[in-house]
């Protein structure tokens, strides 16, 4: 009986070791499979996020460059440019960017479902909605001086800020066209096109701002015109790429179908826009120097998580 028991024990121990080996092997395979999947997903994500971070940081840097050059003109000029860009334009930027973010979901789903024609329809629909939103935002720019005086700014700074804001209207409508076409291209993984267009805009901004300040002496208005031009370089470059051969499957021309289901798109986009733009309303009456520095740094930082949100959405 003792020998039989010992044999049974040995068999049981051997069986347990065998099962343990099988379990360990399965766990190792699962771990390797998980690591492989993580690596593949990370590469796919960074393929989108890397150029997106670069383009967003570069685009935002054009605003910071304009403020830096404005500081060479005087304290009032720096204050006006900082308020107009960080508060007035910043509010519009957040609202329109948030509204355009609805395209990340819609275009990503349409591209994944191979309904390529719908990407162009969604982009046109976003253009319509964001253009209407830009019109609704006009009073903030037109009546910037009384609004800022109400918030406690001096008459000189408030009136100069209104002048800057009026010259920023071109940029406001540029956002309405730029953000949808960026999401249109991102959903097709054409993020490097966006990065190159942003780099071109930055170079144009540096050269044109230097010219208007140190060569042509055009002052505050010259700085803002240079900023407008640089952003429209991105708009026209991406628009030209998308419309003239860069996206043959997803862009089939303008369509009246873009005017359908506008209300559904408005509800989806406005909810996204409101959540983002409210962040720009905080501390709107801070001292100008603190506002300029803190909001510029915060804006740079914000470009990175926004890029990740875009990548995960796609």
UniProtKB/TrEMBL annotation:
Keyword Oxidoreductase: no
Protein name per UniProt: Protein DETOXIFICATION 27-like
Statement: the UniProt record of this protein carries the keyword DNA repair: no
Key words, A-Z: Membrane, Transmembrane, Transmembrane helix
Parts of the chain that traverse the membrane: 78-106, 126-144, 164-181, 193-213, 219-241
A GO term from the CC aspect: membrane
An example molecular function term from Gene Ontology annotations: xenobiotic transmembrane transporter activity
Organism the protein comes from: Juglans regia (English walnut)
Pfam families: MatE
UniProt record similarity statement: Belongs to the multi antimicrobial extrusion (MATE) (TC 2.A.66.1) family.
């Amino acid at each position: 009986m003792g020998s039989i028991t010992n044999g049974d024990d040995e068999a049981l121990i051997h069986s347990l070791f065998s099962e343990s080996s099988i379990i360990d092997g399965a766990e190792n395979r699962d771990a390797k499979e998980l690591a492989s999947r993580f690596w593949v997903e990370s590469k796919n994500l960074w393929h989108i996020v890397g150029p997106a971070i670069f383009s967003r940081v570069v685009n935002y840097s054009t605003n910071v460059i304009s403020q830096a050059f404005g500081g060479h003109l005087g304290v009032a000029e720096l204050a006006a440019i900082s308020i107009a860009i960080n508060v007035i334009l910043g509010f519009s930027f957040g609202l329109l960017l948030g509204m355009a973010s609805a395209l990340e979901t819609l275009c990503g789903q349409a591209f994944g479902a191979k309904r390529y024609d719908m990407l162009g329809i969604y982009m046109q629909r976003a253009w319509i909605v964001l253009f209407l939103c830009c019109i609704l935002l006009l009073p903030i720019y037109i009546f910037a001086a009384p609004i800022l005086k109400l918030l406690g700014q001096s008459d000189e700074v408030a009136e100069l800020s209104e002048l800057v804001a009026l010259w920023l209207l071109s940029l406001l409508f540029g956002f309405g066209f730029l953000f949808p076409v960026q999401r249109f291209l991102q959903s097709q993984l054409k993020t490097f096109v966006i990065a190159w267009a942003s780099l071109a805009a930055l170079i144009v901004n540096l050269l044109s701002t230097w010219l208007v300040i140190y060569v042509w002496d055009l002052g505050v208005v010259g700085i803002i015109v240079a900023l407008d031009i640089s952003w429209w370089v991105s708009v026209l470059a991406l628009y030209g790429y998308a419309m003239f051969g860069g996206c043959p499957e997803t862009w089939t021309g303008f369509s009246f179908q873009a005017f359908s289901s506008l209300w559904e798109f408005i509800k989806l986009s406005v909810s996204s826009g409101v959540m983002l733009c409210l962040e720009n309303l905080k501390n709107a009456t801070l001292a100008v120097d603190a506002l300029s520095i803190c909001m510029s740094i915060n804006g740079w930082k914000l470009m990175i998580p926004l890029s990740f949100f875009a990548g995960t959405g796609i």
